[in-house]
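User: Fold this, then the next.

Assistant: Folding the first:
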Amino acid sequence: MSNVFGDYSAKLIQRIKQAVPALQFTGADSGQLEIFDATAGLQIALPCSLIDFRELIWEDLTDNTQRGEGFLQIRIGIDPAATDAATFHELQQKVHKALHGFTDAPFGKLLRRRSDTEQRENKYCVHVIRYALSVTDVTTAPEYTSIPRPVPVVNGDEAP
C-alpha cells in the first residue's frame, strides 16, 4: 500500500456507483458544488455524490506507523426542479446503504454519525452524510528483510 486514501477512495466511488446508478456523477469533492454561474448553473451533472476525508486526527503507534480517526463526508447534490423530495431521500438512503458498515483494511467499519442539509444561496439542494472513519497507516514503517536462520552444524552433523 503506497497511497492510503487513493485505493480506498476508488473502492468507495465504485460502491456508490454500483448501488446508485441514478447518480450522474460520483467522485472526489473538489468544490464542484461551489462553482456556480448565474446563467449556466452548476458545472457538474446532477444528481451527484462527492466524497471527502475530513478532520482526521493522527496518533503515533509503534514502528513509525500512525492511526487516524475522522470522518468520511458524502455530499449528495440535486436540482429540486428535476428531482422530487421522495427521490432525493431515496438517493440518500441508497448511498447510506452502500456505505454503512463497509470495511476494507486498513480502514475500520464506516458508521454514520451525522447528516444534514446545507443552507445554500442558490436553488440546488445538498445533503451531507458523515461517517466515522478510522485508518492505520503503515506506509512509513521501515521495511525489514527476513533472513532464514541457518541450520546449526554441531561436530559435522546437522542439529535436529
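Now the next one, as you asked:
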Amino acid sequence: MTKGRVFFRVIVGGYLAYLGFGLVRDSFAGKPDHYMFYIGVGAIFILIGLWWFLKAAGAIMRHDYVEPGDDADDETAGEEEIHAEEEVHADDRVGADESSIEEKTAADAAESAGEEEPDEKDCVIEED
C-alpha cells in the first residue's frame, strides 16, 4: 500500500469515528424519534472508523508502506518470478514430451522395417 493511501485511511477513519461520536452524542441529547437506530449507526461508524484509523496508524508506525518514487512493483515482483519459472518448467516438459514421441516413432519405424535404430553418426548430410 502506498504512503498516500495509508494517510488517507488515517484521515477517513478519524472522520468516520468523529461522525459516529457526533451522531451518538446528538441522539442522547435530543432524543429524536428512532434514537436507538441513530445510536446503532453511530456505533458502527465509530467501530469502522477506529478500526481503519488504528490499522493505518500501525502501518505508519511500522513503516509498512511504499514511498512515492520507490518501485511500487516490488510486491508483485515475487509473484511474476514464480509464474515465469512455472512457464519455463512447462516449456521443458513440452519439449521433453515431443522429443520422446519423435524417438518412439523412429524406434517403431526401425522395428517394423527390421532394422536397427538409426544412429546420428550414420546420417550423412549432402550439400549442393
